[in-house]
Predict the structure.
Amino acid sequence: MVRVWLSDKPGVLGQVATQIGAIGGDVVGIEILERGGGQAVDELIVALPDGVGADDLVAAVGRINGAGLEEVRAVSGGRPDSALVALEAGARLVEMEPAKRIEALAREVLELFEAAWTNVIDATTGECVVALGSGPEAPWLAAFVAGSRHLAPEDRAASAPADLAWASIDAHNLVIAVGRASAFRARERRQLATLARITSGLAIDPIA
């Protein structure tokens, strides 16, 4: 998996694919994660032949003017498209028993974003309702969210650390937050917000 910064101009992504092809790589998946300010952040899934490794991939992308690497790491060969994974997660939430949906949402989010932790907190009391992984202390997280909730959704990302994303589950006065080592991009933040909206819209009972 390669996350690459590109000049948002016609032909630049094609140059990336050409350089990857020159080392025997095959681009088998592309997602545009973010666009703005004349740049785009794309995620490419690249199949490499035996004898070709991450260093070769880094060197290939580095030969392109206007391209920069954000992240390169190995993923399983059968890694599915994240848009399909998010859609399937939404379907599973609809099918889930109401009393289990909040924890199920946290688990779906943890897997979808390959995250290190996911917490669900009560927006009023700051109490942690669900905690998966080793995240920040609930009081800090609650204070951060309280300070950001007045912002418009499009402005929240600018106020948050790049490696943290959050969304409101409005019907239950809950907030789900997720963190990982790499940055969250606009597409991923929208996926998180959409899954939270689905969970809220199902009008389940609040967790006791």
Remarks:
- The beta strands are 2-7, 26-36, 39-47, 67-72, 117-122, 128-133, 164-169, 174-179.
- The chain has seven helices and eight strands.
